[in-house]
Amino acid sequence: MRLNWKRKILLLIDIFLINLTLWLSFVVRFEGKIPLHYKSKWLYYVILITSLRIICFIFFGLYNSLWGYSSLPEMIQIIKAVTVSSMLITFVDWIILTPSLPLSVLFIGWVINILLIGGTRFGIRFRREILNSIEYNPKMGKRVLVVGAGQAGALIIREMLQKPAPHLPVVVLDDDLSKIKLRLHGIPVVGSIDQLSQAAAMYRVDEILVAIPSAPRQRLREVVALAKETGLPVRILPGLMEIASGKVALDQVREVRIEDLLGRKPVKLHVEEIAGYLKGERVLITGAGGSIGSELCRQVAKFEPELLLLLGRGENSIYEIDQELKISFPLLHKTPVIADVRDRARLEQILIEYRPTVVFHAAAHKHVPLMEGAPDEAVKNNIFGTKNVAELADKYGVKRFVLISTDKAVNPTSVMGTTKRVAEMVIQYMASKSQTKFCAVRFGNVLGSRGSVIPLFQHQISRGGPVTVTHPEMVRFFMTIPEAVSLVIQAGAMGNKGEIFILDMGEPVKIVDLANDLIRLSGLVPGKDIQINYCGIRPGEKLYEEILTSEEGTNATRHERIYVGKPNGVNPERLQEDLTFLEKWVSVANRVKVVEKLNQMVPKYTPSKKWLKEMTAAGKDE
Q1: Cβ(304)–Cβ(279) under 8 Å?
Q2: Which of 164, 274, 340, 422 is most exposed by smallest CB count within 10 Å?
Q3: Distance CA 262, CA 285 (A)
Q4: Same domain, yes or no, for 110 and 198?
Q5: What angle do helix axes 103-132 and 5-29 make, rounded to 10 degrees?
Q6: Coil, strand, or helix at residue 359?
């Protein structure tokens, strides 16, 4: 083992302390009068005890630890090293001189060694703690106000104290009155969170760190708003979903993001269950270059599939996720495939060649306003594309098939939502007659996905505003991309007979609140620096989204955050007949007839005023 100069000094100190312990042990045992026959063997004792203790200290890593950060685990290692070396000393001494050392001396030496060696190590840490508590020096780093005196706050303060600049915690705030006027790792808890502005000024704070990962969304929003009012940089310890390891570290601290303010309990995956159906399988992901599809690729790759097929029609997006996976998962066996789910012949060629056993179908048109103007294209992709992939999955023995659906499929007011509801019906029909385990996953809006509201608002803010909101009462369910994909993967383990799985997404969020939060996170004031304009509800949109129809209801699943909708019955003959007519109208680009047929297939569908007007006019002409 190579030792640097600090470790060499520590080794020399240990040798001195081991010999000091030997002498003290005899002095204590014989009350200061060591018998001559023990003195005559002193060199033997020194060599035996010193060598065996140092060997054990090296073996138990006592020279590999950073003792400035020592705590209970390091103390346990010291006890183990001293105990094992004492046992070895007794055994070797018994073999050589049958025996020579009194057991009482060995026991006293065991106690003194632990005290001296442990005291030396913790003295190093004590010195560091003293240095860290010295009055502020700019070279020691930014003065940090920590919001939250709970477990997360305690852990992050401890790490800041143990690591060198650039962060120095100086004050803590917490709403728990029992903690006020106490100290957290020596840092005073001086008041409630509502006193943030006063505390920041009094303690000459340079930065605010919010360490309350389990706080409700509303309270977190209030805290961030208070912190932003100080004009200081605000950083946050992310929610527990992001801290997957269960540990808290400085490198997890980051700028506040809008998803932090949505506040939802993390979706916990049943990893063993998931690994059971993905490990060693040949997994096909359609729409692999999209927001959901690419995250599916990242998460599925962790479960060691035999082959991962990245299918999409956009070459750039497929290239990007392929290159990303090449770096993140160098041992992953994957194949990028350029194809369109509407091309049945090409799809069949792919399934024959690669024989996937699990399919995640994420390819779809999803933009509500755009699909209002192109219902035939929405039908081709969302309905017949799904039908192609599902029927070929059945034909070529795919084990599991998971459809990505949307809350817009419930009582739809848009073409996009209606086509996704019909796609769900296709999956339910296929499940009734196939050995393949089919299911669908329905969730709300995904933060940060392409074309979603957050990138639009950020772009508008960067241009100086205004931020456009459709209606002051517009609300939506929101989730992060990792949450959405976690649900999809977990549902794949539970799906069997055409079930529709739904995530408990908490309370819906007002879009205008989202806009206000984003403006504040940009360091600006809503209504002053950036204006919010209301532009009116667009065709196909509704004020609020639903997760279930009134007829569906829900049943619990074995996953505490996932529910399964009671499926409405699908008439196979009627569905096939409707699909035939729908295909006919699509083939001649008769968009009015396409919308009419969608309305017949999904009676809960409420077409937009534009389509109602055109359907009425077409009816009169006939």
Answers
A1: yes
A2: 164
A3: 29
A4: no
A5: 140
A6: strand
How would you classify the pairing of strands 437-442 and 400-404?
parallel
Q: Is residue 569 part of a domain?
A: yes
Kind of pairing, strands 400-404 and 358-361? parallel
Q: What is the mean pLDDT of the chain?
A: 80
Sign of CA dihedral 283, 284, 289, 295: negative
Amino acid at 197: S
Shared domain for 144 and 65, answered yes or no, is no
**Active-site residue among 179, 228, 380, 408?**
408
Q: From CA 446, how far away is CA 427, in angstroms rounded?
A: 23
Stretch 88-104: mean pLDDT:
79
Residue 261 lies in a domain: no
Which run of H or E residues covers position 170?
strand 167-173
* Cα 566 from Cα 555, distance rounded (Å): 7
> Do 410 and 546 touch, CB atoms closer than 8 A?
yes
CATH number of residue 597's parent domain: 3.40.50.720
Nearest one of 274, 306, 301 to 288, comparing CA atoms:
301
Do residues 162 and 49 share a domain?
no
**408 part of the active site:** yes
What's the pLDDT score for residue 389? 97
For residues 314 and 210, membership in a common domain is answered with no
Spatial separation of the C-alpha atoms in residues 213 and 151, rounded to whole Å = 10
Q: pLDDT confidence of 286, banded at 50, 70, 90?
A: very high
Instruction: Convert the pLDDT of each residue in 132-156 to its tens digit.
Output: 554 444 455 678 888 888 877 787 7
**Whether residues 250 and 361 fall in one domain:** no
Last residue of a domain, one of 107, 132, 157: 132
Domain assignment present for residue 18? The answer is yes
Structure tokens at 339: 């194809």
Domain co-membership, 147 together with 126: no
DSSP collapsed to 3 states, 367-415: CHHHHHCCHHHHHHHHHHHHHHHHHHHHHCCCCEEEEECCHHHCCCCCH
Rg (CA), the chain: 33
Q: How far apart are CA 423 and CA 381, in angstroms?
A: 10
CB 276 within 8 A of CB 304: no
| Residues 514 and 396 grouped into a single domain | yes
- Cβ atoms of 168 and 138 within 8 Å: the answer is no
pLDDT at 267 over 80: no
- What 3 state SS string does 315-354 have? HHHHHHHHHHHHHHCCCCCEEEEECCCCCHHHHHHHHHHH
Domain range spanning residue 371?
271-601
CB 285 within 8 A of CB 311: yes
Domain count across the chain: 3
Q: With contact defined as beta carbons under 8 Å apart, do 404 and 362 qualify?
A: yes
What gap in Å lies between CA 334 and CA 356, rounded to an integer?
12
pTM of the model: 0.61
Position 613 in a domain: no
DSSP annotation of 538 reads P
Verify that 110 and 211 share a domain, yes or no.
no
Per-residue pLDDT of 73-86, as tens digits, reads 677 888 888 899 88
Which ranges in 133-270 belong to alpha helices (H)?
151-162, 196-202, 217-229
Q: Is the peptide bond before 466 cis (omega within 30 degrees of 0)?
A: yes
Give CA–CA dist 383/420, Å, rounded: 7
3-state SS, residue 470: coil
Is-contact 173 189, C-beta < 8 A? yes
